[in-house]
């Protein structure tokens, strides 16, 4: 079967800064792929190019058979970008829940406004997805009454309610207090186990090792290594991958020695 | 008056003493919290009392009494209360027009401000240009001139507007230009992440504006819009210059000039304007408190 996401010869410039340099990547249906790398390595930009929150400077993106080339501003091109966004769900580092809407309203907004779904049907769908992330009990609260972890779980439910074929996670736990990270990672694990295709930019090495099918390592706008967690964590080929993992190990060392090395 | 003040002082002091004695067993946190509440209450009471004192002094200033302190004599201002009584209803009757002008003008201004703010954020050159041109022109000329322009200058071009319409158009256009900045700030206050989240859900740019950005921008804009409305009730007095709108200021100057009682007439108008703004400020405070609930 054809890959569900294909990134071909992708380049991205911010002004004169070359942040993505000839990226090629294929994601299979049902795969969980974690993207790791230092900050500034271009991993978030790559993720954001897939649903065109960032406009690629060159190359093409294909999601679920819909291919869009960079700089396609035709009516057809814009329609394709819209179709890709309908097929991808996105979870942001800063949650980005709509503060003027309750939890339930946040989730039915997409299905009703974008898909024209009937309200009652949208509510049923929303409640099902809230149940899935364990947040149904807060459905009538406003986001400002929730903890960071709860907000992120609602944000995941909001994306899932659009019934996407691919979920994009942009550092979903980086803005959370350490004690709240676990609940979000657990929800993400469950979504992965349900067979969702996931692309996750993360600094959580434990999650990457346990859940990912493949790990993509990025540095300075390039993919420097792709492999299974086992390959990457036990036998990294690239010197910079080794250095990156050493940094993570050093950061984790005081609390859990050798948590990453096996 | 003086007696009243000292009584409330003692009451406050007693209250404070009582609470201190009767609460020996509560935790430190609760005691500190209670003390904080008490300080806040006492502060508010003192402010209220000070207001009353100042108000009483102002009343005394216009009471017409003569105050004798030893060998010194202070004469206070003697108002013609008979005149006031005769014309009170007539002047007060102008408040209806004042409020009507203000409400119609603020509606027009809100509409113009929203369009101008969207124009200012637009990347479509003519729309952007029209918006900035409008704001620059209106902010660059006096409101007084604008009112006269619509009332006195347009007839020369064959466009004759009644004073009331000319006033509403001028006030609406003028406030629209200033309020567009409020809306622009409101739209700017909605984070980039909100737009991105909506786009990622598949919303079109128009849907993002309508469903996500504008509702949040309005929330941000409502308190300053309240201020603008309060300012407008007072600026509506300028419309009296046309001589054909029988609002508060026009009525006050009419009876004042006719009877050479401008002092009494203007004081009456001032009291009514003050009353209206106090009521409006109170309502604004309530709305603001309510808006604060659902926010971030």
What does the model show?
The complex is a heterodimer of chains A (262) and B (296). In chain A, a hairpin with a 2-residue loop joins strand 9 (214-219) and strand 10 (222-227). Chain A has helices at residues 43-50, 75-87, 103-114, 119-132, 148-160, 178-193, 205-211, 229-234, 239-252, and strands at 5-14, 17-27, 32-37, 58-63, 66-69, 88-91, 166-170, 197-201, 214-219, 222-227. In chain A, the strands form two sheets. Chain A has a six-stranded mixed β-sheet with strand order 6-7-8-3-9-10, sandwiched between helices. Chain A has a four-stranded antiparallel β-sheet with strand order 2-1-4-5, with helices on one face. In chain A, helix 3 (103-114) packs across helix 4. Chain A starts with a strand and ends in a 10-residue tail after the last helix. Chain A has nine helices and ten strands. With 262 residues, chain A is α/β, with parallel strands linked by helices. Chain B has 296 residues and is mainly α. Chain B folds into two domains: 2-69; 81-295, MetI-like (MetI-like fold, Orthogonal Bundle), CATH 1.10.3720.10. Chain B has eleven helices and two strands. A two-stranded antiparallel ribbon of chain B has the order 1-2. In chain B, a hairpin with a 2-residue loop joins strand 1 and strand 2. The longest helix of chain B has 34 residues, at 28-61. Chain B starts with a helix and ends with a helix. Mean pLDDT of chain B is 87; it is low at 1-9. Chains A and B meet through helix 2, strand 6, helix 3 and helix 5 of A and helix 8 and helix 9 of B.
Defining traits:
heterodimer, A: 262 residues, alpha/beta, six-stranded mixed sheet, four-stranded antiparallel sheet, 9 helices, 39% helix, globular, disordered C terminus, B: 296 residues, mainly alpha, MetI-like fold, 2 domains, two-stranded antiparallel sheet, 2 strands, 79% helix, flat, disordered N terminus
Give a short overview.
The complex is a heterodimer of chains A (262) and B (296). Chain A has 9 helices and 10 strands.
């Amino acid at each position: 079967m054809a890959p569900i996401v294909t990134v071909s010869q992708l380049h991205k410039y911010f002004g004169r800064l070359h942040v993505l340099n000839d990226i090629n990547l294929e994601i299979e249906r049902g795969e969980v792929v974690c993207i790791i790398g230092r900050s500034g390595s271009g991993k978030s930009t790559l993720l954001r190019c897939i649903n065109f929150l960032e406009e690629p400077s060159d190359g093409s993106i294909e999601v679920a058979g819909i291919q869009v080339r960079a700089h396609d501003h035709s009516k057809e091109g814009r329609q394709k970008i819209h179709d890709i966004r309908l097929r991808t769900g996105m979870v942001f580092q800063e949650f980005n829940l709509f503060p003027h809407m309750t939890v339930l309203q946040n989730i039915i907004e997409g299905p009703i406004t974008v898909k024209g779904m009937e309200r009652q049907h949208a509510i049923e769908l929303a409640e099902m997805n809230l149940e899935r992330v364990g947040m149904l009990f807060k459905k009538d609260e406003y986001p400002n009454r929730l903890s960071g972890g709860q907000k992120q779980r609602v944000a995941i439910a909001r994306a899932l309610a659009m019934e996407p074929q691919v979920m994009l996670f942009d550092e979903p736990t980086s803005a959370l207090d350490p004690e709240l990270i676990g609940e979000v990672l657990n929800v993400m694990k469950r979504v992965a186990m349900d067979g969702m295709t996931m692309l996750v930019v993360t600094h959580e090495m434990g999650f990457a090792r346990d859940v990912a099918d493949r790990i993509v390592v990025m540095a300075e706008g390039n993919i420097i290594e792709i492999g299974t967690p086992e390959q990457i964590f036990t036998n990294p080929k690239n010197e910079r991958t080794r250095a990156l993992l050493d940094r993570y190990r050093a950061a984790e060392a005081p609390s859990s020695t050798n948590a990453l090395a096996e | 008056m003086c007696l009243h003040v000292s009584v409330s002082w003692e009451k406050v002091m007693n209250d404070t003493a009582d609470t201190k004695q009767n609460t020996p067993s509560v935790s430190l946190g609760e005691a500190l919290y209670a003390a904080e509440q008490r300080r806040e209450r006492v502060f508010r009471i003192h402010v209220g009392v000070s207001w009353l004192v100042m108000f009483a002094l102002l009343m005394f200033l216009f009471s017409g009494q003569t105050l004798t302190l030893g060998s010194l004599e202070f004469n206070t201002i003697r108002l013609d209360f008979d005149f006031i009584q005769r014309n009170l209803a007539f002047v007060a009757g102008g408040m209806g027009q004042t409020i009507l002008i203000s409400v119609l003008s603020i509606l027009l201004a809100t509409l113009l401000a929203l369009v101008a703010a969207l124009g200012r954020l637009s990347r479509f050159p003519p729309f952007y240009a029209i918006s900035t041109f409008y704001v620059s022109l209106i902010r660059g000329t006096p409101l007084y001139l604008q009112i006269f322009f619509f009332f006195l200058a347009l007839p020369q071009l064959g466009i004759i507007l009644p004073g009331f319409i000319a006033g509403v158009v001028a006030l609406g256009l003028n406030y629209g230009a200033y309020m567009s900045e409020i809306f622009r700030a409101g739209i700017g206050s909605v984070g980039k992440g909100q737009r991105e989240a909506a786009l990622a859900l598949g919303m079109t740019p128009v849907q993002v504006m309508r469903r996500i950005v504008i509702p949040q921008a309005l929330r941000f804009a409502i308190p300053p819009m309240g201020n603008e409305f309060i300012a407008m009730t007072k600026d509506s007095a300028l419309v009296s210059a046309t001589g054909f709108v029988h609002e508060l200021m026009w009525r006050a100057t009419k009876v004042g000039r006719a009877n050479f009682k401008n002092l009494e007439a203007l004081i009456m108008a001032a009291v009514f304007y003050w009353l209206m703004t106090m009521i409006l400020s109170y309502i604004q405070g309530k709305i603001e408190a309510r808006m604060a609930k659902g926010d971030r």
